[in-house]
Write a structure and sequence with these properties.
Blueprint (H helix, E strand, L loop, with lengths): L7 E4 L8 E2 L7 E4 L6 E3 L4 E5 L2 E4 L4 E6 L2 H7 L1 E3 L4 E3 L8 E6 L5 E3 L4 E9 L28
Antiparallel strand pairs: 1-6, 2-3, 3-12, 4-11, 5-10, 7-9, 7-12, 8-10
Length: about 150
């Protein structure tokens, strides 16, 4: 079962493109570069790509901005912060900090799909300071401690 919810989107620039889903069951909606001309990102540099959009996510939901697999594998471009988070009370322009992970300059074209947006519910933690935590078999082991290889 797919849950659907209305999301109000405001175009901040005339040439902005609303997010679109690439297939019937796609989890991520494509975000598009809202730029007037090609932009070249130097090797190992980051460029803040505008989408020309602001949105009103429902309370209790967040927008997570992920890399598009094609852009990451074919061009070596992916969000610099790995996953961007859009809170439901943010009303500014959605921007994507694209990082060039390659040794070659890479170009972004106007209206190019630059990232994908996944809308997801979240839980707000109520944090309480305690003197001890329940013991588990794993304990404090981390960073590969549960595997044998």
């Amino acid at each position: 079962m797919i849950t659907r919810t209305d999301v109000n989107v405001k175009k901040l620039k005339e040439n902005a493109i609303l997010p679109t889903y690439g297939s019937e069951y796609a989890a991520g909606a494509d975000l598009y570069a809202c730029i007037e001309e090609d932009v070249t990102i130097a090797p190992h540099e980051t460029f803040l790509v505008p989408t020309g959009l602001a949105m009103e996510l429902p309370i209790g939901y967040a927008g997570l901005i992920y890399a598009r697999s094609g852009l990451a594998t074919k061009k070596g471009l992916a969000p610099a912060n790995k996953v961007g988070v859009i809170d439901s009370d943010y009303r500014g322009e959605i921007m994507v900090a694209l990082h060039n992970h390659t040794n070659d300059p890479k170009t972004i074209e106007p209206a190019e799909r630059i990232a994908q947006l996944v809308i997801t519910p979240y839980i707000v933690g109520v944090f309480s300071e305690v003197d001890s935590l329940d013991e588990t078999k794993r304990g404090a082991g981390g960073f590969g401690s549960t595997g044998t290889h």
